[in-house]
Amino acid sequence: MMATRGPLQLTLALFKPDITRVPHVVQAIRNRIIQEDFFVVRHKEVRLSRQDTEQFYEEHRGKFFYNRLVTFIGPSQALILAHEDAIKHWRALMGPTKVYKTKYEAPDTIRGMYGLTDTRNSTHGSDAEETAAREMKFFFPEFCQEDWYRVEEDRFRKGQVRLDEVKFMHNLF
How would you classify this enzyme at the top EC level (predicted)? Predict the structure, then answer.
């Protein structure tokens, strides 16, 4: 992996249940993440309860699609990704939320290739730094963003990491 020049930004990425059930799709998305020079700072498999899902999507309560979001539960994968302008870059790689349009307008994006519906759209990504901080804390309560920036960010940026392919996470060397 090439060292990057600018400071790294963190974002949360989720692989939703519609793709975690399909191992070759998960692997294809992992490959895209690495090809796009993202660092995988944290990664874990999760299975959210209905209550956890409602808490995670609280900001959407009352919207017409809320019930579809919170009933769509199952095995998922949560990742903290780092990249220059990570939020914007991950969202561009995912593609637009509306899968029916994405299949035509951005077919090479993750959602364009693997999304099924607007709810079962394969992935989630934070939309702002504040959201990313909250979402990372939700899935990785032990992770301290401030400590990571103070202790590890510079070494990640300089490429002093190695990908553990089994855990799908970069580790410092």
Answer: transferase
Active site residue 83: no
Domain boundaries, the chain: 9-159
Catalytic residue among 43, 83, 124, 170: 124
With beta carbons less than 8 A apart as the criterion, state whether 168 and 40 touch. Answer: yes
Model confidence over 2-27: pLDDT tens digits? 555 689 999 999 999 999 999 999 99
> Does 63 carry a binding-site annotation?
no
pTM comes to 0.90
**CB count, 10 Å around CB of 135?**
21
pLDDT band at 45; cut points 50, 70, 90: very high
Is 121 annotated among the ligand-binding residues? yes
What architecture (CATH level 2) is domain 9-159? 2-Layer Sandwich (3.30)
